[in-house]
């Protein structure tokens, strides 16, 4: 049950239901009774701060950042209507909230979850939209800092109107240091799966090129259904973003044109100076992709057959790796193999086998954690 007030009002907005929860707060569907329209309200979570003193500063920074983001008027950027404080506009310790356009068609993460990867042409359209949004924000001096599939939302059902970027600048407003542009190791609280190497290393200024890297990681997920680096341990994911070469997308999505591989080679560089210089340069690469003829086929004469062969080879390899790990009692190898198998079974639409691999991985994971919990 919501606890804002007896009648579930948050300021002038009537809360309808919770839409979801992220790292920075909770998003509700609400009804604006004055204008008779639905809105989405993000209520900030400030509980990371035990004594509350930083919360006041964070709330102020959030409001400043939201004011800047609210100036961005672009078809591919969510419209922010207003910001407020729970309990009243001047209340210092009220939790800040942001009222924005309600996007009912859901996020790209929902889409990946429900329907799996996008066809490459659709993915290129989504990327092109996101790049126009980033170009407008960067032009206005705003770096997003948390580009990822949950922050890309469909404008309307059926993909009409393309996508909109949400949550501009919030990552910095809440977790960045107050007066500096620089983030430090350990300060980074965004999603490890889409973080740029410089966000992880915390060694240099975060600028527009950091968003370009995160969008490349997002594009990889749109095409393959998973982020470029996957591991149970987020520290390991961060290490890989910082040091491992960006993976070849065609290993998981062999049907995508070569041009996509080149996009990732460029946008996924560790060194920001080697990436696309700006969002519009990367947008031009997406436009080139979208100009490929409808009849475009992979260089492989039978892309579907090639993919099938590749998948069945991977399956046989993983199954024999699992058997070997079981006989040598190598639990961490069993665990990582089970996780890969789970993903592969899902790709092959074998839900029963995927569930069984997931269940076995979970049991093993819990078992492996027990000695640590006992310490
Ligand atoms: N304007 C909106 N309209 C409709 N749903 C939204 C809107 N903004 C966010 N949501 C949904 O609310 C949920 C929570 O969003 P939230 O931004 O808090 O989480 P997140 O994107 O996963 O993480 P982060 O805190 O890093 O942004 C998500 O499912 C998101 O799709
Ligand atoms: Mg979000």
Please describe the topology of this protein.
Blueprint: E1 9-10, E2 13-21, E3 25-32, E4 37-44, H1 53-70, E5 80-85, E6 96-101, H2 108-115, H3 120-139, E7 152-154, E8 163-165, H4 170-175, H5 197-201, H6 208-224, H7 234-243, H8 258-267, H9 279-291, H10 303-327, H11 331-347, H12 351-374
Antiparallel strand pairs: 1-2, 2-3, 3-4, 4-6, 5-6, 7-8
The protein binds adenosine-5'-triphosphate (ATP) and magnesium ion (MG).
Low-confidence stretches: 177-187, 299-305
Which ligands does the model contain, each kind named once? adenosine-5'-triphosphate, magnesium ion
User: What spatial order of strands do you see in the largest sheet?
Assistant: 1-2-3-4-6-5
Order of helices and strands: EEEEHEEHHEEHHHHHHHHH
Let me know the number of strands: 8
**Helix-strand makeup class:** alpha+beta
> Can you tell me the CATH architecture of the largest domain?
Orthogonal Bundle
Proportion of β residues?
5-15%
Q: What is the CATH fold-level name of the largest domain? A: Transferase(Phosphotransferase), domain 1
Percent helix, as a range, is 40-55%
Report the CATH C-level class of the largest domain.
Answer: Mainly Alpha
Number of domains: 3
Rg, Å, rounded = 22 Å
Mean pLDDT: 83
Number of helices: 12
Instruction: Supply the CATH superfamily name of the largest domain.
Output: Transferase(Phosphotransferase) domain 1
End-to-end distance: 37 Å
Shape: globular
Instruction: Tell me the major beta sheet.
Output: 6 strands, antiparallel
């Amino acid at each position: 049950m919501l606890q804002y007030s007896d009648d579930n009002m948050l300021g002038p907005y009537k809360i309808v239901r919770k839409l979801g929860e992220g790292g920075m707060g909770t998003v509700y569907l609400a009804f604006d009774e004055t204008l008779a329209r639905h809105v989405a309200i993000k209520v900030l979570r400030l509980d990371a701060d035990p004594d509350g003193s930083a919360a006041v500063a964070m709330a102020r920074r959030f409001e400043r950042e939201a004011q800047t983001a609210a100036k961005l008027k672009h078809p591919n950027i969510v419209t922010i209507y207003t910001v407020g404080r729970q309990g009243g506009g001047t209340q210092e310790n009220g939790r800040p909230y942001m009222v924005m356009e309600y996007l009912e068609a859901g996020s790209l993460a929902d889409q990946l979850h429900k329907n799996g990867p996008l066809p490459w042409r659709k993915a290129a359209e989504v990327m092109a939209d996101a790049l126009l949004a980033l170009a407008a924000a960067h032009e206005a001096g705003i770096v997003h800092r948390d580009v990822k599939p949950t922050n890309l939302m469909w404008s309307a059902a059926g993909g009409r109107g393309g996508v909109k970027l949400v949550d501009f600048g919030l990552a910095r407003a809440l977790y960045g240091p107050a007066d500096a542009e620089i983030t430090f190791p350990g300060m980074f609280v965004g999603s490890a799966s889409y973080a740029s190497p410089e966000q992880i290393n915390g060694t240099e200024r975060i600028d527009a090129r950091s968003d370009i890297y995160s969008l490349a990681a997002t594009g990889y997920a749109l095409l393959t259904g998973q982020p470029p680096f996957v591991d149970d341990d987020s520290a390991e994911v961060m290490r890989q973003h910082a040091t491992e070469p960006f993976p070849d997308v065609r290993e998981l999505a062999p049907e995508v044109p070569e041009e996509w591989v080149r996009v990732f080679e460029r946008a996924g560089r560790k060194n920001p100076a080697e990436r696309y210089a700006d969002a519009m340069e990367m947008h031009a690469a997406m436009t080139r992709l979208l100009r490929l003829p409808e009849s475009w086929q992979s260089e492989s004469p039978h892309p579907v057959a090639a993919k099938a062969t590749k998948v069945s080879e991977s399956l046989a390899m993983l199954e024999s790796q699992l058997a070997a790990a079981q006989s040598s009692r190598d639990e961490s190898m069993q665990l990582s193999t089970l996780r890969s198998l789970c993903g592969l079974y899902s790709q092959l639409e074998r839900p029963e086998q995927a569930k069984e691999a997931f269940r076995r991985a979970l049991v093993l994971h819990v078992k492996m954690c027990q000695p640590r919990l006992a310490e």
